[in-house]
């Protein structure tokens, strides 16, 4: 290395002695602060580098510290590295630092609340003191200040300061426009030096040398050595390194290390070989989402990974390994695969690169034995980590203690806590002893609406009240737009299933007055003529029907329906079914015997997050997302009274409706002869009771 620079110096001296043309620096004016001598670009042509791939393997381990910062600066230290970044608060910024060391430890995390700051531009720790360059408001514009301990210092005339380095007993400021300026820890600025070029990248080695990469048509590397704030021009930037991020390579024996989207490199100035130390894809990482990287020792690296969905940054450690890294499998299972699942798994793999998510479709794999096989696996070694509950006997699984109480995760959650969830939804999903076994990806509000001028201000009704109002309706007014008893009965089972079947107790209640009343009503309903209106909404508005079942997925939808009815709308719900119910879309649970529970909880949180709201219309489970949805509705012109009505429905919904295909099929099969007049009501009910009872016993 020394021989290389000796040769370069000798060549320059020889050229000067031979009278070769050399541009002299212009004389400094009285107000000039000095500049770095510039050389003819022909003297420092970029080298053509040959890339050599290392055979060393690595493995990655992620860490997720609480209140993780958005990292913007990396500082190499003798024993590791310090990552600096921010968290946004109501009053300004919380500037924090996270110290890491080999063999992969998070040593400390601390920081300062900075009121009124707009952003963190640079950070550095000197003598156990965190120092920051901050952007603050000044009238309608902003300016930069230096903050050391509790003091704030003006750094004008410097502008666009982007790097802050430890320098002797103080600091060195480096700006994007090439200004270099020392400053003491008491805030006293030294004399700025003009590099003469704009700076694109900068980093500092553990021994104190600062490496700069200029930008422009002929970028070059510069070095600022301890004790001398003047910059030394080293060489032109090889084309292979022009688009890279820089980090100190001192601990690994390189003049510099750099990474791009695909790989991490090591290089010594003057050498024709660029060492490819690591391809990110071999450890499931991406350089484009790696916001910080540092060497901890001669074998270990630490970095910060930025998930694509904008969630909290993640710290990772890279260790040398004898064999290539194998991903951990996260198994997601269900009777059928939801349409959105492939997208969810792909996104999860990008957020958690150490995992490979796969879906097991039990219906496709095992056909008629799907449920039997799934029940066996839930109790054995092949238990999946995440369970999609569509079409599964949820209450039976909970009763057998095959599902995990999600309160265990919500109580200590970082991203998702119980208080974040819609209270009425939690209350509807919790068991009598307070356990919460499932959460939906999204949900809709299921209710039935009527004209307020007809039914009054009923907020909900029992079957007796409903029947009394129905009996008073004109002969040409039907109860529902549907005339097929099987179609209406399917809706009845959907809304009132919990009142007719108690899966937890294993009992059926089809001999109740509620179900008998429905059968009697539907017996008469099948002989009524169909409505003349083109739509059910029009039939309700014109008085041809009494009740219209609706699924509400947005405040705008409710507003349109209300206006179509001349604002003569009231949500009353199904008789004995509550004013509104939650219909869960893709409810998800964590099996009790899951192995990768940490990743399973992360996947579940991702499913219920706003990232995938667009895949299904409907509501998300969190208060924040509902508030945002309502604010968007108001901005789009939805009337306040409609927003208030939907908010009231969200708060008053008190159950999660459940469609049990097996029980529904039994009921429809045994009531068909009754509606045809072949058997009595008692006989039909007796058959249903017997068959549903046997079904529940089998579960």
How big a fraction of the residues is strand?
Answer: 25-35%
- What class, by secondary structure content? alpha+beta
CATH superfamily of the largest domain: TolB, C-terminal domain
Give a count of the beta strands, DSSP E runs of length 2 or more.
35
CATH fold group of the largest domain: Neuraminidase
Give descriptors for this structure:
5-stranded mixed beta sheet; 27% helix; disordered N terminus; D-Maltodextrin-Binding Protein, domain 2; Neuraminidase; 699 residues; alpha+beta; 18 helices; 8-stranded mixed beta sheet; 3 domains
Describe the structure concisely for a colleague:
It contains 18 helices and 35 strands.
If you had to describe this structure to a student in words, what would you say it looks like?
With 699 residues, the protein is an alpha+beta fold. The protein folds into three domains: 47-321, TolB, C-terminal domain (Neuraminidase), CATH 2.120.10; 328-441 and 592-615, 3-Layer(aba) Sandwich (D-Maltodextrin-Binding Protein, domain 2), CATH 3.40.190.10; 443-585 and 631-698, 3-Layer(aba) Sandwich (D-Maltodextrin-Binding Protein, domain 2), CATH 3.40.190.10. It is built from 18 helices and 35 strands. The strands form eight sheets. Strands 26, 27, 28, 29, 32, 33, 34 and 35 form an eight-stranded mixed sheet that branches. Strands 1-22-21-20-19 form a five-stranded mixed sheet, with no helix packed on it. Strands 2-25-24-23 form a four-stranded antiparallel sheet, with no helix packed on it. α10 packs antiparallel against α11 and α10 packs across α17 (661-675). The chain is elongated.
């Amino acid at each position: 290395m020394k021989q290389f620079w000796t040769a370069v110096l000798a060549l320059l001296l020889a050229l000067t002695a031979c009278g070769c043309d050399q541009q002299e620096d212009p004389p400094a004016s009285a107000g000039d602060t000095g500049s770095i001598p510039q050389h003819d670009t022909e003297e420092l042509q970029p080298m053509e580098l040959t890339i050599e791939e290392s055979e060393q393997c690595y493995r990655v381990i992620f860490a997720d510290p609480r209140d993780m910062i958005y990292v913007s600066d990396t500082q190499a230290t003798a024993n590791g590295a310090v990552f600096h970044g921010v968290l946004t608060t109501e009053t300004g910024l919380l500037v924090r630092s996270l110290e890491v060391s080999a063999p992969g430890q998070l040593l400390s995390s601390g920081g300062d609340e900075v009121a009124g700051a707009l952003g963190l531009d640079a950070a550095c720790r000197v003598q156990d003191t965190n120092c920051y360059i901050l952007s603050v408001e000044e009238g309608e514009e902003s300016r930069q200040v230096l903050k050391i301990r509790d003091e704030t210092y003006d750094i004008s005339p410097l502008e666009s300061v982007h790097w802050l380095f430890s320098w002797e007993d103080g600091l060195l400021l480096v700006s994007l426009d090439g200004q270099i300026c020392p400053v003491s820890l008491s805030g006293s600025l030294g004399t700025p030096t003009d590099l003469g070029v704009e700076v694109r990248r900068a980093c500092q080695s553990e021994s104190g040398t600062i490496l700069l990469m200029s930008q422009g048509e002929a970028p070059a590397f510069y070095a600022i050595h301890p004790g001398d704030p003047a910059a030394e021009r080293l060489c032109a930037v090889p084309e292979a390194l022009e688009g890279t991020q820089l980090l100190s390579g001192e601990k690994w024996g390189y003049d510099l290390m750099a990474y791009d989207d695909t790989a991490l490199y090591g290089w010594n100035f003057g050498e024709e070989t660029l060492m490819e130390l690591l391809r990110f894809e071999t450890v499931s990482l991406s350089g484009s989402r790696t916001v910080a990287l540092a060497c901890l020792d001669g074998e270990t690296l630490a970095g910060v990974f930025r998930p694509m969905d904008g969630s909290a940054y993640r710290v990772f450690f890279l260790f040398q390994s004898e064999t290539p890294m194998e991903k951990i499998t996260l198994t997601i299972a269900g009777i059928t695969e939801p349409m959105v699942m492939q997208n969810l798994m792909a996104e999860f793999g990008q957020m958690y690169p150490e995992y490979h998510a796969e879906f097991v479709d039990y219906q496709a794999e095992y056909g008629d034995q799907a449920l039997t096989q799934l029940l066996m696996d839930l109790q054995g070694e092949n238990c999946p980590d995440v369970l999609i509950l569509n079409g599964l006997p949820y209450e039976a699984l909970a009763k057998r203690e095959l599902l995990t109480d999600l309160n265990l995760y919500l109580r200590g959650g970082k991203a998702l806590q119980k208080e974040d969830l819609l209270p009425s939804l939690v209350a509807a999903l919790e068991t009598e002893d307070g356990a919460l076994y499932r959460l939906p990806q999204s949900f809709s509000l299921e209710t039935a609406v009527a004209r307020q001028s007809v039914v009054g201000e009923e907020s909900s009704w029992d079957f007796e009240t409903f029947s009394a109002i129905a009996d008073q309706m004109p002969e040409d007014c039907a109860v529902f737009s549907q005339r097929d008893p099987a179609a209406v009965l399917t809706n009845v089972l959907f809304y009132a299933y919990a009142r007719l079947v108690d899966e937890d107790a294993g009992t059926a209640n089809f001999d109740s007055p509620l179900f008998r009343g429905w059968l009697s009503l539907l017996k008469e309903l099948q002989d009524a003529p169909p409505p003349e209106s083109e739509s059910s909404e029009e039939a309700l508005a014109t008085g041809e029907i009494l009740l219209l079942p609706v699924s509400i997925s947005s405040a705008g939808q409710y507003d349109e329906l209300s206006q179509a009815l001349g604002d003569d709308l009231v949500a009353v719900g199904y008789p004995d079914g509550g004013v509104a119910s939650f219909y869960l879309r893709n409810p998800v649970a964590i099996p009790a015997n899951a192995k990768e529970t940490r990743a399973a909880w992360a996947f579940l949180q991702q499913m219920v997050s706003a990232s995938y709201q667009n895949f299904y219309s409907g509501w998300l489970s969190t208060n924040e997302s509902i508030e945002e949805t309502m604010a968007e509705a108001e901005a789009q012109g939805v009337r306040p009274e409609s927003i208030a009505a939907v908010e009231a429905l969200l708060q008053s919904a008190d159950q999660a409706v459940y469609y049990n295909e097996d029980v529904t099929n039994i009921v429809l099969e045994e009531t068909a002869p009754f509606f045809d007049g072949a058997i009595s009501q008692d006989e039909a009910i007796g058959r249903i009771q017997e068959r549903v009872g046997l079904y529940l016993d089998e579960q």
